[in-house]
Amino acid sequence: MKSIFWRLLLLLAFTSLALILFLPSTPFKTALPAFWTNGVPHISLGLDLQGGMHLVLEVDQEQAIETHVKRLAASTKGLFKDKKVPVTYVKATGVDTLAVAFPSGLTSKARDKIKDLMKEEVGLFDAPTLKGNRFEFRLAQFEKDRIKDWSTSQALETLRNRIDQFGVSEPIIQRQGPRQIVIQLPGIKDTQRAIKLIGDTAVLEFRMLDENGSLSDALAGKVPFGSEILYQRVVDDLTGEETERIPYLVQKEVLLTGDVVEDARVQFDQQMNAPYVGISFDRQGAKIFEDLTAANVGKRMAIILDGNVYTAPNIRERIGGGSATITGGFNSDTAADLAIVLRAGALPAPVDIIQNVTVGPTLGQDSIDAGQRAMMLGAVFVIAFMIIYYKVSGLIALWAVFLNIIMLMGAMSYFSATLTLPGIAGILLTVGMGVDANVLIFERIKEELRAGRTPRSSVNAGYDHAWWTIVDSQVTTLITAAVLFQFGSGPIKGFAVTLSLGIIINLFTALVGTKVIFDIRNRSSRVGKVSI
After folding, report:
1. Predicted model pTM
2. Which domain holds residue 310?
3. 281 and 222 within one domain
């Protein structure tokens, strides 16, 4: 009796806890107190059940390598200057090559010093190739592999930060292979805005306009050395279409980048009745910006994002305080999105959208309805079979299945799991395996009864003999589910999660939940038979 009491108490405790966790994720949540619904985790619906967007992005790792080599060119140029080594120029050529030119007639000893400095101070390049009056250093393979892996990992983190600030509930953002990123945005409505937010590289640059050169000559093809033509896109607030492109002759030298931006917020101009983006720099960036504006009073500075000139204001005075503003005909959404990408940081390389699948909410609701119909139909057949074939014992098995589903839902709520259509399939399979475990037990009990044993000893022997068979079948399936979770993608993981939790709970309900009911019925020695 004491053993029965503690097993019943354990069942009651687990069932109550599962209901406390699960009920806030059901339609009954409207009748629950606010502290209950707000204080426990919820089950969220996956992309296939509530609709949304599924994207597969590919990181341009070659561009990341090229950008890295360009930065090394700038730092290496400063290195040679500090060491007083005579070089004509240092520039990136191709994707992974750095060219270092030297004056003609340079002694072999001075040329060896160039190679020694590159090896000792930089150490990221293979042995150089001499071509005329220049060395060509190719980036070492180990460094290219590091940049490739880093660019994908960094892009993943940057995109996660952007999407978190965008406000999507329960997004799925994960790496797939060496250069791909999978993003699922359940319930999102404005898909075009999301794509733009995700795809923007967000390279912020501050450059001076070339006010000595002629814009008209540059547009005719005579672009001054060290300058280039960039455009400001004027967009209609209502339609979002580009209405005008304003050309600027901009110096190529980048004076300040978005790496020093500490914060970016949407602010509102009361006089112009329009939003703009206010940015603040870190300590280093504030000092550079102050010196930059002091040295260029009366000149125009271009603020450029991803090659598009947002604004080109005239510097009227030294600007201290470490802040600046970006204007450019924003509406509330575009200003908010720009602030998000500036706060989250620039992507290390461009990303290409290689797959874009949008699931409508109607299709998601159809999936929910189909899943509910499948579960109801399956439940009806299982209930009918168990009652007809196993009689009262069949009802006990159904009681275990009922406990299994409640505890499974409670466990999913506790882990804030996402329920997907494959996850529903995992629940159905769990129900089947729960019934299967009880069938194994019941058949062993029937064998013991046919051998002439008493009901109580037949039940005990049935559970004892079926124990290892049930554990073996459940554990092997659990191993398969673990492999699916480790190596599968989003939907497969959903199936693996529900199946794994269901198997673990099923071992408890099949071997403890049903056994305690049989023990209660058989606690009297006068029980003459088992309805099985």
Report:
1. 0.62
2. 201-345
3. yes
